[in-house]
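A reminder before we start the practical. When you read a complex entry, don't treat the lines as separate problems. The point of joint prediction is that each chain is placed relative to the others, so the output describes one connected object in space. Small molecules and nucleic acid strands, if listed, are placed in the same frame. In the example below there are two entries. Take a minute to note the order of the lines before looking further.
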Amino acid sequence: METLPHILVVDDDREIRDLLAKFLERQRLRVTTARDGKEARRAFANGHFQLVVLDLMLPGESGLDLARWFRAETKVPIIMLTAMGEETDRIIGLELGADDYVSKPFNPRELLARIRAVLRRTGDSEDRAAEHIKTYSFSGWELETARRRLADPNGVEVSITGGEYDLLVALLERPNRVLTRDMLLDLLRGRQAGPFDRAIDVAVSRLRRKLEDDGRNAQLIKTVRGGGYVLSTPVERR
Amino acid sequence: MKICLTPKSLAGRTIFILLVGFALVQLLGLLIHTLNQINLERIEEERDIATRAAIIYRHIALADPQDRAALVAKEALPKGDTLTLNPFPPVLDTDYDLPLPARQILRASLFSYSIPPEIRPRGLLLMGTGIPTHIVISFGMPDDETTFFNRILPRNLPPLPPDLLPPPSAWLTLTSPMVPPAPWRSPGFASAFIVMTVLGAFMIFWAVRTLLIPVRTLALAAERLGRDVTNAPPLPETGPIEIVTAAIAFNTMAARIRRFVEDRTFLLTAIGHDLRTPITRLKLRAEYMEDDEQRTKMLADLDEMEAMVAATLAFGRDITTSEAITRLDLASLLRTILDDAADGAPDTAETLAYTGPDHLPIQARPLALKRALANLITNAQKYGDAARITLHPPAQGQTRIDIEDSGPGIPTTETESVFEPFHRLETSRNRETGGSGLGLSIARNIIRAHGGDITLTNLPERGLRVTVTLPV
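Here is the predicted structure of the whole assembly.
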């Protein structure tokens, strides 16, 4: 029997826990639930989990403290449920090492997509999950992952869309490697990227404009003949 | 046309009033001084002339009557004086009576100079003539017989009254011009006056400016409080008693407003937070609905509810949170919002356009500013079927963003009220267009907290223009 990915859901509302567990189990995931930090630790000690869905608004011990504990103890990926619009919680969570976040009230399907994306990202190599990158530097530019903040060589913040951010991270993760449109589509599926090749091209051209990278004579994101893109610059990770 | 002479500012007015008063007082002082000076100079001069006349008379009267004419001709006189010896008293066309004080001074001065009784004048005329004023003093000369009479009379008797004697045979007349009074002759006086005036005016300027600084501070503080209730700094409670009282009252008022806003915000936020759990449950439950169409609709309803709650939360939070200010590229921010809008509704992509520079760094709070501009652009897209953005290069420290749509615009009477929380135009108050009625309020709160402003104008043909100004 194949092993289904095992998910730990930590939320203080029993209805949400049960409904979410039922929903995720229907999507071929194994789910254990916990109502607070104590239960979560106990469950974690007794099982092997591939991912934790963690509500930051917990009674007693706060979700952020629990996330900190998880990070200190393990390399298990974390998806946070944040109160919507609470940017500070989200940023602290991401800085602590959470892998993604969904703001509450969330759409179950979106949560599922994020779970899948994180599992795919972390599944191929165990090490990657451990290596939590906070900042990428390339050609004077800096990308802060927690705040999703891109700053140009002068330190001026240049805003990018969610799709552009995902694309940029995908490229920064694999510098000097050719990524075909299919690979990029696959990597970006967690987001609601359009299902067409065109979407990738549009996203790349937008990103080039933001990076002041002239499309016809691109220096950073080069077009590869035969359908693909490559980030041709050294990337420093911190 | 009415010319406004009174200055607009309180400082200007106070200075104006004080300067006018000060000038009046100075002028009055000057006038009193001048009148006094003129009087003194006149008395001095009259005394002078009288003494001179007495000396001359004594000199002439002591001489023998036949030698007198020669002496008169030889007499050394100051410039302007004339001395005559005539058989008759002078007749002047313009003669007028000297004022009594002048007469008394002349008389007293004439007789303070010792004249022996035997040569007392037999007549004395004191007159003044027109302008320039001359003083004319005429003495009836004593002749031998009067001298004789006077000589034989006992010393203790008064001299014979003139009407008992024949009229004098000669009259000695001194005509002396009065130097016109010059009260400002002393150079120290003018400079003292000027120095006093300048110093006084300077003191007035300085004192009024200093005293009125707190008023300006108060106005600025009120302005800041109006723009950003949460972050406005309190007024310093220092200075004169009245200012301290005003500052304390202002700070108390600001604290009350802040508490009121915080209470309201807390209420909104609490409701928003409490709604999260049921909405999440409903979204999960919707997954168990068999009917696909109904499920989609239910999820759409829930999304709408969520959007309203999110807007309410955003409205509450904008007032309380203070995101750090960083340098950000406004051009790329606008492009990102447009791209997101285009991704959300790909079929409307052609109606979205950006014109302006590729980069424009400004100081701002990135998330807040993005929310504000996204609200405006979404409005244009939703109610105006288009969003054409023009970013103007900075001028006078401000940059301007115009967001134009192709919609019906809004009634001119509503251009201000649409910014009120939960205010919606009648046309948009239906489920199709939805909206929480908070988008514009949030946007304006944020833009004003950045030191900018938002205004709405209808375009001449069709559509609405939202103008956002931001300091660069």
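Discuss with your neighbour: The first strand of chain A starts at residue 6 and ends at 10. What might explain this?
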